[in-house]
Structure formats: structure tokens, C-alpha cells
Model the fold of this input.
Amino acid sequence: MNRKHFIAVTALAMAVFGAAAKAQAEETIKVGVLHSLSGTMAISETSLKDVVLMAVEELNAAGGVLGKKVEAVVVDPASDWPLFNEKAKELITKENVAVTFGCWTSVSRKSCLPVFEEYNELLFYPVQYEGEEQSLNVVYTGASPNQQLVPAAEYMMKEMGCTKFYLLGTDYVFPRTANKVLKAYLKSVGVPDENIYEEYTPFHHQDYQTIVANIKKFGASGDACVLSTINGDSNVPFYKEFANQGLTSELCPIMAFSVAEDELRAMDVQPLVGHLAAWNYFQSIKTDENKAFVKAFKKYCADNNLPGGKDRVTDDPIEAAYFGVKGWAMACEKAGTTDVDAVREALYGMEFDAPGGKKKFHESNQHTYKPVYVGEILKNGQFKIVYESDGLVEPDSYSKLLHTDGKFPAPTGGPKK
Done:
């Protein structure tokens, strides 16, 4: 074979290989999974990766999306906030994903938000957050403040008799903005400034001795509570120190916004019994659909030899991550395409069944109608539901407590003009 013939054959082979690769790529739909599998947030985010992969497996078992197999591309931004930006761009520009499911902290979401808006791609965000955002490139399947923060504070006042509030959080955008909303609510119902104390610690903070001593002094009157926006693995030493100093749920109850069943797996639960958390789903919801979901997740973890196996639990962000995948697939089928603009329009007002009951995507603001629950921690690491809202609560992307004039910023992102 002469050199000229060799080059022609090689070029033909490469063309055939490229066409085959392209055809194979067109037969699958790639989706991105953008969750920290290492670092301080791995305690919470690893399970979200697991349930997204389970949802993808279920989609494929049912025939895929638009007749094509769904392929999950998993990356680890390692609890490194700037890395979320880089990994999001990698998923969009190199992997050509149709959608991304990911993030936990608001700082991670805000880090990669410019990428999704620049390329007009979709991020499904599964965790409760501080609000004050409405991007056409994010579908918020977690709670807005009026679906978690405000009902929780109201519960502590009306049902627990609390008149003093210690606002303790991790030092980043979610706790600080959440506490702006909480303070605005508390002041609107007559709580004086001296009955509200606010404090923050960095990510991965471990020494809570002084802070808990301050809480003990603040709550000496017996009518105080902690509204906790501590995130990640710092919850472990905080609750441990709380118990070490003799504080109990009877003396000073903690209402947590970032502690759920999954975090309790890594904690000594006994000292936590009686403390509270506000969410939009608990594993203890007693419906056939939820029992099937819990069973399926445990089986998936066991079958795939994931840490914890059949002893794994579900929680609110896990449910929100799961129905985010299923909701996206439903919107694709409705639109007849994975095109972002068409999928976005298909999502608006769409009602669907989730493990914890019926949900609905908002008609315009990218958020999700959800029920509100308050749960009390039990010794088995589950929650006893002590409060449930009357039906689904409409989500506010911007808090009316912070925008008293009724004027809200316009949405960001969306189709390029």
C-alpha cells in the first residue's frame, strides 16, 4: 500500500469511526451530575448523586427519554466553590449535557449560575435556599423561604412558646440571607431586637464550646430556641457540644434547616431527640408511593454496594433531586425535545406525582409548589411529623418580607436575544 492510498484509507476509517461515534452520541442523552463527593459537603451531597443515578436507571428501564437512553456524567466539584463553575462549564461545553442536576450550598449554585445563563442551559437545584433569586436557567425543586423558614419560626412561637431566637449559621449566602428573612418576620410579629441574636461560623467549623455557652446564657430564661442554618459536617460537633453542656430540646429546642435523615446517619442521635427540623418531605410520610420509594432507594444502594447499603435513608433533598430528574423527563416528553427553551415552557404549571405526594412547578417563577412539614427527631434517626401545612404552598422567589413595596427584580438568564 502506497502512502497516498494509506492516507485515503485512514481518512475513510476515521470518517466512519467519527460517524459511528456521532450516531452513538445521538442515540443517548447525556445529563450532568454536579455534586460534591468529597470535602465538607460530601456528607450531604453524595446521596443526591446516588438518587439521581437511580432515577436515570429507572428512566432507562422504562425506555429512556424520547426513545433514547439517558447517560449520566458525574463530576466532583469537591466542596470547592470556584470548581463548581469549572465543572459546570465542562459538562456543558465538553460533555454536551442536555441538563444538569446539582449543587447544595447557595455559594456553589451562585458560582456556576453565570455558566448556565451564558450558555442558556438548565440546572435543577434540589435544596431549600434563601430565595432572592429567579433565573430562567434554574429549576428550584427545593423550598423557598416562605415554604420553610417562615413557617418554622411561626411554629416555634405558636407551638413551642419561644420568644427569644438565636440565629446560628455557617458563614455564606444562604444563612445570612435566610436570617434577613427570619429577622424581618420576627420583627413583623413584634419580637424586639434584644430577643434576636445572630452568629456565624466558617465551613467545617469544629469548636462550638464558646458558642453553646453563649446559647446557654441566652436561653437561661427558658423561652429561647436556636434557628440553625449550619451546613455540612459542622452539625456533628455542634449538636455534640450542645448535649455536652446539658442543653436539651426541653430547655432550648433547635429548629434546623439543613439537618435531615441523611445527616443524622453520621451523628449520635440520642442527644438530638426532641429537636426539630423544617422540610417539605420526611421519610416517615405514610403513603404507599413513599414506602415504595424508600424501599427502592435502599435496594439501589445495596445492589450497587454503596456505603450504608440497605440501611440508607431518604430525606427532603433526596426526594427533590429524584423528582427533578423525573420532572425534567416529563417535560422533555411533553415538548418532544430536550431543547432548553422548549423544556422550560413545558415545565410551567406542570403537575406531577412525587414520592412524598403531588407537586407542581410554578406557572412562571421556576420554583415548586410543596407542602411544609415540621418534624421532631426520634431516637431511631427518623422524624415524627408534628406539623403539616394545609395543602401545597405557593413558592415566592423573592420574599415579600424583604420587598415590602411589592416590587421584585426581573428574572435573569433565559434565551439569548
In short: The mean pLDDT is 94. The CA atoms of residues 123 and 173 lie 19 Å apart. The chain has twelve helices and 15 strands.
